[in-house]
Every structure is written in structure tokens, then in C-alpha cells.
């Protein structure tokens, strides 16, 4: 974030606090990373540019850097598996629903499969969607409402409108086995000629993200009921996603923000953006590292699982580079961060510069902050790591908070920015920076550190 924008955000945050308002920059109330012994896992299911008949499964600790867990992980007995959507049911199983046909054939069914472990799937059945004159049933997405009902939101076209004119419909499971479904109900206020509708609920409001097939933009609307009527309030390039995007899918991040993934199908790319103000504004679109140009129309399931990595708090440690083991995180006299050589013969001042007290994160106690002997905290500013005195602002607390992710070697960690998910502390030319995750071995090593016995 540039200095001018950061100053504006800090001012607005202060004004909001004085007025007793909930600041839009603070994230969701109560949002926090899992405690020690637990971790967030984001599971992605996707079909690919190379195959519409096979599904691939990836997962990630940060919703940015995804690792292939099995591919192909599922191939239906017949038909295709486009647009696979995943959720975990109360019976402990993971379920898929997906599009079974593509452009060249009428498609009146959606498919279902089930898994105990996300990786090995069993075909359940193809379901014929009972819509009169149905031509195509595409892009089914799970939606579990706050009352516990399990729903599917799908895009369907009927003969009366034309086979390429889609509207969103809702199906609701009428039994816990997910084998019986209510009659389809049209979502009013969206369309016609809208496809790939994805819905999330915050409080009592339903938020719909849907592709306008006429303009090719992802639009946004809200309703007080799942079936509408929705009021589309954001059209055109309102979020900066650009035209030619489809397949929006959202997931909430641990810091309270929301991430949207979307498919730039024409350009053969995949993108994501983040929002922290109830979807009013979005971060600059970023290509999904390592998977852009390969995965297609994905969904991401967030869970809390056992595991994760931790650091000892309220203790002093030095942070040793994994791939330059003779170098350590230090604060030089310019208060900027570097990885410099430190040895037993180094001066006391150098040893002190490489020694930090690890404390619970200023913005989230389940993450970490690092304070040096001068009382300065490791924080980012313009994506450069520096050491500054706490100024008491929310912005500073977030800038100085980092969440531990597994590093490249046993016992090492990668430190992800709390307020810029997907960006990590890494060294480059021995300078410490906050850089977006890159799907390379070099980046992963450059951003891995081991907390070792303190030099001072």
C-alpha cells in the first residue's frame, strides 16, 4: 500500500473510532486465525484446461499458494466434471456437485459424488433437474444457509428463452442423504441472461455475485431472502475485475476479509481479489500463483483442522534464513530489515540486532509480532520490512502481525502478513520485503526462517 493511501486509511479509521462507528477497514468482528494446534485448510476442487473429465484437488494454508494433493482425483463413470463445487456435510462426508455436459450437448443433469478424505471420491448419481423445457443445467454451487438447509444454486436455460439464456435457480435438499430435492425455485431479480451465480450470507443479507452474459462482467446484488428479489447494485467494471470473467467463488479469510476467485476464460488466466468493506471495494486483481492458466471454474472450501506450526511466545529468538544459514533477520541502523551474517565473533550490537522477543500478534493473538531490544516492532511499509515504534493505531497492529505457515524445512516457518494475505516476509538481495507468494522453490526457501536460540 502506498504511503498516501495508508495515511488516508489511518485517518478514516481514527475518525470512525471517534464517532463510535465500526470501521470498514477492521475486518469482520471476531475474525481470528485458529489457536495453537489447529490450522486453516483451504481445499480447492477444479477441472482443468487439459481435461473436462477429471477433477483435481489442491489445498492451501493461506488461500493463495495451493499444492496439488491428487490429480486426477475423480473421474465420473460417464459425462464430464465441469464446475465442481465442494462442501462438507454434517454427516462428515465431503460432497461434490458438478456440470455433466458441455457446449456440444443438451445438459439436463447435474452430478453428485462423495468422499471421506477429499481425495478419493465415489460417484453417487446424476440428477435430472425438473425444469420444464430445460436445455442446460450448469454451474451448480452448494449453499448451506444459516438455518442448516443444504441448497444448490444452479444456472439453467429453457427452450422458451433460448438454450444460451441462463437464469439462476435454487434446489433444496429434502433429506439428509442429499438424494431428494425440492422443486426448483427461480431466484428473482437476477437475469435473464445471468450465469454462474454464487451466494454468501452475512448476517441476514444474501450477497450474490453473478456473471452478466451480455456485458461479460461479474455483477453484485443483495436480498433479504435466498430466492430474492435481488437488487443488482454493482454493474460494469465496478470492482476492477475487468470484462470476460466468470465462475466467481468466494471464501472468507482468517483476518475477516473476503476473497473472490474468478476465471478469465478468454485469456486463459485465473485471478483473485480481496475485500474488507462489505464488498464495496476490492484489491488489485492478482493471478493465482502456479495455477493460473491451468485450473478452470473452481470452488474453495475452508476448514479448521489439527496441525499447523507455532512459535514460542514471550521468549527471545533469532530468525535464521533457511537457505542462507549463516544469515539472520536483523535491524540495521536505518531501521530496515535485512538478512545479515551473524557469528560468535560479531559485536554485541550486531547480535542484539538479530535478537527479538516473540509476542502474540498485535492484531491477532493467534499470530505473532516481533519486538527488538529497542522496543521497535518488525512491520511492513510500502512492502519493505522495517522496525518501528508502535504508534497505537490499528494499521500499525496489522502491519506488525504475521501468521506462521509451514516452511521448507522441518521446524521452519514462513511468516504471512496478517493484513495482506498471500504476502510473505522474504529476502531478496539480502533485503527483507513483503512479497506475494510465488509458486517456486526459490521463493519458498527465501521466505522460510527457523526460530533459533537468541544471539543476545
UniProtKB/TrEMBL annotation:
Gene3D superfamilies noted in UniProt: 2.80.10.50, Glycosyl hydrolase domain, family 43
One example GO MF annotation: hydrolase activity
Domain Alpha-L-arabinofuranosidase B arabinose-binding: 318-450
Transmembrane annotation, as ranges: none
Signal peptide from the UniProt entry: 1-28
SUPFAM superfamilies: AbfB domain, Arabinanase/levansucrase/invertase
Keywords attached to this entry: Hydrolase, Signal
Protein name listed in UniProt: Glycoside hydrolase family 43 protein
Amino acid at each position: 500500500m502506498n504511503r498516501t493511501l495508508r495515511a488516508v486509511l489511518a485517518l478514516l479509521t481514527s475518525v470512525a473510532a471517534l464517532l463510535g462507528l465500526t470501521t470498514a477497514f477492521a475486518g469482520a468482528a471476531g475474525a481470528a486465525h485458529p489457536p495453537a494446534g489447529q490450522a486453516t485448510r483451504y481445499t480447492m476442487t477444479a477441472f482443468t484446461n487439459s481435461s473436462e473429465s477429471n477433477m483435481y484437488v489442491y489445498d492451501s494454508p493461506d488461500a493463495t499458494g495451493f499444492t496439488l494433493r491428487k490429480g486426477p482425483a475423480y473421474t465420473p463413470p460417464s459425462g464430464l466434471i465441469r464446475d465442481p463445487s465442494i462442501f462438507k456435510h454434517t454427516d462428515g462426508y465431503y460432497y461434490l456437485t458438478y456440470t455433466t455436459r458441455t457446449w456440444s450437448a443438451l445438459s439436463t443433469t447435474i452430478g453428485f459424488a462423495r468422499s471421506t478424505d477429499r481425495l478419493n471420491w465415489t460417484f453417487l448419481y446424476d440428477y435430472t433437474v425438473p425444469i420444464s423445457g430445460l436445455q442446460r443445467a450448469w454451474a451448480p454451487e452448494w449453499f448451506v444457509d444459516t438455518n442448516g438447509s443444504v441448497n444448490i444454486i444452479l444456472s439453467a436455460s429453457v427452450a422458451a428463452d433460448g438454450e444460451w439464456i441462463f437464469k439462476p435457480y435454487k434446489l433444496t435438499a429434502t433429506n439428509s442423504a442429499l438424494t431428494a430435492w425440492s422443486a426448483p425455485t427461480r431466484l428473482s431479480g437476477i437475469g435473464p441472461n445471468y450465469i454462474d451465480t454464487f451466494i454468501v450470507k452475512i448476517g441476514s443479507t444474501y450477497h450474490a455475485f453473478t456473471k452478466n452474459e451480455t456485458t461479460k462482467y461479474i455483477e453484485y446484488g443483495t436480498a433479504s431472502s435466498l430466492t430474492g428479489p435481488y437488487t443488482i447494485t454493482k454493474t460494469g467494471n465496478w470492482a476492477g475485475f475487468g470484462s470476460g470473467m466468470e465462475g466467481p467463488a468466494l471464501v472468507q479469510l482468517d483476518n475477516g476479509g473476503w476473497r473472490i476467485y474468478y476465471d478469465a476464460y478468454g485469456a486463459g488466466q485465473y485471478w483473485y481479489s480481496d475485500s474488507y468493506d462489505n464488498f464495496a471495494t476490492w484489491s488489485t486483481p492478482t493471478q493465482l500463483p502456479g495455477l493460473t492458466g491451468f485450473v478452470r471454474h473452481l470452488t474453495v472450501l475452508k476448514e479448521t483442522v489439527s496441525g499447523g506450526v507455532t512459535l514460542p511466545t514471550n521468549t527471545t529468538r533469532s530468525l535464521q534464513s533457511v537457505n542462507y544459514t549463516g544469515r539472520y533477520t536483523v535491524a540495521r541502523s536505518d531501521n530496515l530489515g535485512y538478512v545479515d551474517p551473524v557469528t560468535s565473533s560479531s559485536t554485541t550490537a550486531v547480535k542484539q540486532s538479530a535478537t527479538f522477543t516473540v509476542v502474540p500478534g498485535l492484531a491477532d493473538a493467534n499470530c505473532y509480532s516481533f519486538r527488538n531490544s529497542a522496543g521497535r516492532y518488525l512491520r511492513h511499509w510500502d512492502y519493505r520490512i522495517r522496525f518501528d515504534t508502535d504508534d497505537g493505531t490499528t494499521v500499525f497492529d496489522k502491519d506488525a502481525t504475521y501468521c506462521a505457515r509451514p516452511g521448507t524445512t522441518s521446524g521452519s516457518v514462513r511468516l504471512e502478513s496478517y493484513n495482506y494475505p498471500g504476502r510473505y516476509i522474504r529476502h531478496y538481495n539480502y533485503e527483507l520485503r513483503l512479497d506475494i507468494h510465488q509458486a517456486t522453490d526459490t521463493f519458498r526457501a527465501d521466505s522460510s526462517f527457523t526460530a533459533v536460540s537468541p544471539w543476545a
